[in-house]
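Entry for the shared binder. Reason: the reviewer on the internal report wants the predicted structure included alongside the sequence.
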Amino acid sequence: MKAFVTILFLLYHFLLLHQPSSSLPLCTDLRAPLISKTPLAFCPYNGSVCCDSAKDLQLQKQFHAMNISDSGCAALIKSILCAMCDQFSAQLFMVESGPREVPVLCSSTLLVNSSQSNRAASSFCSTVWDACQNVSILSSPFASSLQGSNVVPADSGSSKLNQLWQSKSVFCDAFGGSSYDGSICFDGEQVSLEKSETLVLPKGLCLEKIGNGSYLNMVAHPDGSNRAFFSNQAGKIWLATIPEQSSGGTLGLHVSRPFIDLTDRVFFDSSFGMMGMAFHPNFAHNGRFFASFNCDKIRTPGCSGRCACNTDANCDPSKLSSSNAAPPCRYHKVIAEFTANGTISKHSSEQRASPSEVRRIFTLGLPMAFNHGGQILFGPADGYLYVMVGDGAIRDDPYDFSQNKKSLLGKILRLDIDNLPSANDIGDLNLWGNYSVPQDNPFSEDKDLQPEIWALGLRNPWRCSFDSQRPLYFICADTGQDHYEEVDIITKGGNYGWHVYEGPFLFNPQQSPGGITLANSIHPIFPVLGYNHSDINKKEGSAAVSGGYFYRSSTDPCMFGSYLYADLYGSGFWAAAESPENSGNFTTARIPFSCAHDSPNNCSTIPGSSLPTLGYIYSFGEDNRRDIFILASSGVYRVVCPSRCNYTCSKENVTAISLPTHSSGKKLTNLHRVLCLSFFLSSMLYFVI
């Protein structure tokens, strides 16, 4: 049985690794599409588009300069140029593989396992060749082979396709492709996704309690093992061993022996502490890891840095009101680097790291002492460090920091910590620490932006994650103020509206001595998910969202593909299904939850209810097997097979075999997991084959 489980587990991960890297609607500059305020004059695109009027005019001029005499060919070339305006242009032009002038032209009559509507009765690439092969096209976009292609034109100086390329098949080898396994290709029309099979939301969330400690962060060990790091707000990090599903084991963590103890430099209070940690993707070899915490410059030597309220941000600290009876910028947000070199072991949870800082990566003085975010994580596709920063205010963002492009507050930052600057560069470039700025950050197109900024208009981003199957899906929960909690898909240069909007609703701050940004001056990206405060607590209306993960584990097959998130106050979980897949359109439902009767640690229940008493839901975690964990004030919980809580899942087969339950209770539970996994894998194999 153990060997069988191992084979299924390896097969599952093989299939995961071979899933397509599909992306949401995204433009070639990796920004989100915008709703055009005026119809495009040249390209026949409307609604959510990747072109403004200036880009539309540029494409029109490019088309006229080609001087195409044949009307049939001209219409096709125009459609190819205008594909740049499609809301899926990033995928059509395969921007992750390098720049190209021509979208991937559909060259197959079959759209295998595709989310794209099957409109093409014939190969569009062949249609282009047949109509244009003898037509002169000046400054032809087909004159050079695509980056990464082994196919090269016969005569790059010619203007006709049959002179540039030896044959239709060679031409389509260079520019064609099929819509396969979730990818898309251009068939002459605006991309339209096929309505995918409705993802049935789970009947309930089954949990087991594997730890009694209270933690704020969990990060899977980058070596791929069954270990993970846990940290608390006070400033300690532990390395723990995670037990096998349904083994009856608990979290292998020694409270008295932390991986590192930073409590001597972390300022710990209700809204302060160690708020995040991140481990370098190559941590198993270089030992580099990073802690995000707060310090008090009065109590802790070395706690100093520039105030986020400064002349560059058009802000005067002397005019700010004090918060928490503390002067502005007494408290700082710090990201510090540490090392575990010389102590790295593949199997031990006794690993320790030196508390001596290697370097300060980032230091930011906080003008106000409230919502300041603090999570940090590495992007799986680019390896850069993403830093979540709140607006700092208790309410209203009165100084409009979130919309101020020269302020780092209310933003998501993107830093390069592998190419470190010299001391002179830090001063000359006005940096906030030991990092460099990726050259493709949004400031490269918007010179008004501080170079570090990746996205803006956030109140207090609380728990972000990248989808393990689709690394371009960067999703963040952002806590609201009075009425609405939201979840956003974060894109390059995206403005998420605060404090002009709270969620999808216009917001009117009670106080705004720093001024307000007008709604018609921004292009906000509205949340893909959210809920009203009154949905949680109808009497008080209090709520605060905790962002989670796209569920990619085999454990609960009915949860697979859903985005799981919760409310801080422990009374609500939601599962959200995306349809069509890769569209960014979600349907969400609040789902019941309970604790497995055979949970390794006892789950206490709310008096008069069967619901487990979770307390506050601080955060979520994901291990290397893609199992999801809930970090609550009452302990650490793991999502397990739904049958363990008597929830029904049509994809889980748990009734095929009946075993004695006296001394083999755990074996029965293990069998449930095997059957659940095997049924799910057989379904995946069916669709793959």
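Summary line for the report: Confidence is low (pLDDT under 50) at residues 4-22, 655-675, 678-689.
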